[in-house]
Write a structure and sequence with these properties.
Layout: E1 4-7, E2 13-18, E3 21-26, E4 31-37, E5 43-51, E6 54-61, E7 64-69, E8 87-93, E9 96-103, E10 106-111, E11 122-123, E12 129-134, E13 139-144, E14 149-153, E15 158-159, E16 173-179, E17 182-188, E18 192-197, E19 202-207, E20 209-217, E21 220-227, E22 232-236, E23 254-262, E24 265-272, E25 277-281, E26 286-292, E27 301-307, E28 310-317, E29 320-325, E30 336-337, E31 342-350, E32 353-360, E33 365-369, E34 375-380, E35 386-392, E36 395-402, E37 405-406, E38 411-412, E39 418-423, E40 429-434, E41 448-453, E42 456-461, E43 469-473, E44 479-483, E45 490-498, E46 501-508, E47 513-516, E48 522-524, E49 531-537, E50 540-545, E51 549-554, E52 560-565
Antiparallel strand pairs: 1-2, 2-3, 3-4, 5-6, 6-7, 8-9, 9-10, 10-11, 12-13, 13-14, 14-15, 16-17, 17-18, 18-19, 20-21, 21-22, 23-24, 24-25, 25-26, 27-28, 28-29, 29-30, 31-32, 32-33, 33-34, 35-36, 36-39, 37-38, 39-40, 41-42, 42-43, 43-44, 45-46, 46-47, 47-48, 49-50, 50-51, 51-52
C-alpha cells in the first residue's frame, strides 16, 4: 500500500514510506530533506503532526501505533489506548494535536501527546473505512470499502451533511482542499485519482497514482501525489495540472556483498542494482579503482575465491557467472552461461578444481569449474530449493528447506520449516532434519550459513517468518539456541568465531543489524532500507542495503567506521 502524508512545518513537505524509513521531500524544491530510519519493517499507514513545535510522524505497523520524532528518529513511546486503526490522519482539535483513525467502520480520536482516546467512536459508515483526510480544522473526510465518502465534524461527533460520493467501488486514497473556485475532493482506487468538485462533477483524472494529499505552497492549495513509479509530484487545483518539480527515487540498491584479502589488503566487493561491482579498501576505508561493469541486470550474488594464484570475485546476474580479478578489475575468465538465473552462490575447492556451487532458477544445483567454465557436477535434482551452500573441511554442504513429517498423521506440517543438510559429493543426507525453523515467510531466499565451530559444523538460519535466528549442530540436528530482536523477517546472516566464541550478525527488513551470540544482540542502526547482505572479515563487519549504502562497522564495538554510496 502506498503511504503519503504532508506536514507544513518549515514549508510544505511530503512524507512517504520507503521500506523501513520515512523519506521527507521538500515540495518547493522537489529534493529530499532527509530519510528517517524507523526500525519498523512494514508500515501500513502514516500521518504527520506537531508536538510542542516538533514535527512527528505517526505510523501504523505490526497492529500498533508508533510516534516517531522526525528531528531525531526516536520513538516517543506514546501508549495509545484501544484498538489499532487501519487508516489514520491527523489534525488539531481544541488546540490539541489529534490523531483520527478508523477501526473497522468506526472513526476514533486520540490525543497524540498522551494516547488517550477523546470521546466515543463515530459510527458513520457501514463498510470498513479505508482512507481519511482532513478538510478544515475539525472536519474529517472518510471513505469506505463501498466507495461511500462522508464528512464528519470532530468537535461535535456528528455528520456534516449528506454523503459526498457513492461510486460503488472501494476508495483507498483520499484528499480534500478549499480553493478559490470551491471545494475539491480527490478520491483514488490505488491506481488512479479522480478530482471532484463540490457538486460532484469531475474536474480531472490523474493516472498511475497510489496515494494523494493536499498542501499549501506559495499561498495556494496544491495536490500532492505518490505515483506507482514512487515519484512525488504536485498539481494545481482544482484541475490537477502538474506543476512544480518532481521528486524521484534515484537510489541504486546494493544487492550483494562479499569480502576477501587482495594483495594483502582486506577488501569488500559490492554488487549493485544496476549490474555493477565496486571495490572498497577496508584498511584505508576508501574506494578501489573504477567500478566494474559487464552484467546487464542486478547482481544477485557475489562470492570470492583463489584462482591461478589470484583473488577473484564470482558474480551472478543475467543468467551468467562472471569471474573478475579483484586486483585489476578485469575479467579473469570468459563468462559462464548458466541458462538460468542464479540465486544462491558459494565457491569451494573440490577434486582439484576451484568451483562455484550455485542454485539456479530451475530449482537445481550445479557446480561449475571456474578455470574452464565447464559443468563440474549436476544438475542435481535432490537439492531443489537449496537455501545455502558452504564448505567446511573436505565437505561441501547443501542446506535445503522442507516441512517436518508427522509419523502419526502421515502428513507434512506445512506451517513449519525443517532444514536438511546434504553432502554434495556423495549425495547423502548428513545428520537428522532440523525442525523448528518457524513458519515459512515471504523472503524468497531466506538467509542461512554454515560455519565450523571448534571442529563441528553449525547451521545458522533466519528462515522463519517470525524474524528469529536459530542455530543448530549440523551433525546431530540438535538446536543450539535462538535469538530475536528484529521487526519483520531476517534478510541476511553472517557468522564468525572470535576468541573461541561464535558471533552471529543478522540484518533484517527493518533496516537494522544485530550482532552477538546471546540475547537480542547489539542493535546497529543507520541504514534506511532493508538489509540485503552482510559479510565479516577479521573484526570488521560490512553491510549492504536497499538504501544504496555500504557500511563498515567494528564488529566488537558496533562503531561505524565508514559509509559509502553505491553511486
Amino acid at each position: 500500500m502506498s503511504c503519503l502524508t504532508v506536514i507544513e512545518a518549515g514549508g510544505p513537505h511530503a512524507i512517504i514510506v520507503r521500506g523501513p524509513a520515512l523519506e521527507i521531500i521538500d515540495l518547493t524544491s522537489g529534493t529530499s530533506a532527509g530519510t528517517i530510519p524507523t526500525g519498523l519493517a512494514h508500515i501500513d499507514a502514516v500521518a504527520a503532526a506537531e508536538i510542542d513545535g516538533r514535527p512527528i510522524a505517526i505510523c501504523v505497523a505490526n497492529r500498533r501505533l508508533y510516534v516517531v520524532d522526525l528531528s531525531s528518529g526516536d520513538h516517543l513511546g506514546v501508549p495509545f489506548s484501544g484498538d489499532t486503526p487501519q487508516a489514520i490522519t491527523a489534525g488539531v482539535l481544541a488546540g490539541r494535536p489529534t490523531l483520527i483513525g478508523a477501526t473497522g467502520s468506526e472513526l476514533r480520536r486520540w490525543d497524540i501527546t498522551t494516547g488517550e482516546e477523546i470521546g466515543g467512536p463515530l459510527a458513520v459508515h457501514r463498510a470498513p473505512v479505508l482512507a481519511l483526510a482532513m478538510a478544515g480544522p475539525s472536519i474529517v473526510i472518510s471513505a469506505d470499502g463501498d466507495g461511500v465518502v462522508h464528512r464528519s465534524d470532530l468537535s461535535t461527533g456528528e455528520e456534516a451533511g449528506e454523503p459526498l460520493h457513492r461510486p460503488g467501488a472501494p476508495v483507498t486514497a483520499l484528499a480534500a482542499a478549499e480553493t478559490g473556485r470551491g471545494f475539491v475532493l480527490v478520491t483514488g482506487d490505488g491506481s488512479a485519482a479522480t478530482l471532484l468538485r463540490a457538486d460532484g462533477s469531475a474536474a480531472g483524472t490523474i493516472e498511475e497514482v497510489g496515494a494523494v494529499a493536499t498542501a499549501i505552497r506559495d499561498g495556494r492549495p496544491i495536490l500532492v501525489t505518490l505515483g506507482l513509479d514512487e515519484a512525488v509530484r504536485t498539481h494545481d487545483l482544482p484541475d490537477g495540472t502538474e506543476n512544480g518539480p518532481v521528486w524521484a527515487d534515484e537510489t541504486v540498491s546494493i544487492t550483494a556483498v562479499a569480502v576477501a584479502v587482495v594483495d594483502g589488503r582486506p577488501t569488500a566487493i559490492s554488487g549493485d542494482g544496476d549490474g555493477t561491482l565496486r571495490r572498497w579498501d577496508l584498511g584505508t576505508l576508501t574506494p578501489v579503482g573504477e567500478k566494474i561493469t559487464g552484467h546487464t541486470s542486478w547482481v544477485r550474488a557475489v562470492a570470492t575465491a583463489e584462482l591461478h594464484g589470484r583473488t577473484v570475485a564470482v558474480t551472478a546476474a543475467d543468467r551468467s557467472l562472471r569471474v573478475w580479478d579483484l586486483a585489476t578489475g578485469a575479467p579473469a575468465t570468459e563468462p559462464i552461461d548458466t541458462r538460468y538465473q542464479t540465486t544462491v552462490l558459494t565457491t569451494a575447492t573440490w577434486n582439484g578444481m576451484t568451483i562455484a556451487v550455485s542454485l539456479h532458477g530451475d530449482g537445481r544445483t550445479r557446480a561449475w569449474d571456474l578455470a574452464t567454465g565447464e559443468l563440474a557436477a549436476g544438475p542435481l535434482d535432490e537439492w531443489a530449493g537449496a537455501r545455502a551452500f558452504a564448505q567446511t573441511g573436505g565437505v561441501i554442504y547443501a542446506i535445503t528447506a522442507d516441512h517436518p513429517y508427522d509419523e502419526r498423521s502421515g502428513a507434512y506440517d506445512t506451517s513449519e520449516i525443517a532444514l536438511r543438510a546434504w553432502d554434495l559429493a556423495t549425495g547423502n543426507a548428513i545428520g537428522a532434519p532440523m525442525p523448528g525453523g518457524g513458519p515459512g515467510g515471504s523472503v524468497t531466499w531466506p538467509p542461512i550459513t554454515v560455519i565450523d565451530v571448534a571442529g563441528r559444523p553449525v547451521v545458522v538460519s533466519g528462515a522463519g517468518a517470525d524474524g528469529v535466528l536459530r542455530v543448530w549442530d549440523l551433525t546431530t540436528g540438535a538446536p543450539l539456541g535462538e535469538r530475536s530482536g528484529h521487526d519483520g523477517q531476517l534478510t541476511a546472516v553472517a557468522a564468525t568465531v572470535h576468541d573461541g566464541r561464535l558471533i552471529v550478525v543478522t540484518g533484517g527488513e527493518d533496516g537494522t543489524l544485530r550482532v552477538g551470540s546471546e540475547g537480542d544482540g547489539v542493535r546497529l542502526t543507520g541504514h534506511t532500507g532493508r538489509i540485503t547482505s552482510v559479510a565479516i572479515t577479521g573484526t570488521q563487519l560490512v553491510s549492504g542495503s536497499e538504501d544504496g549504502t555500504l557500511r563498515v562497522w567494528d564488529l566488537l564495538t558496533g562503531v561505524l567506521q565508514a559509509r559509502f554510496r553505491s553511486s
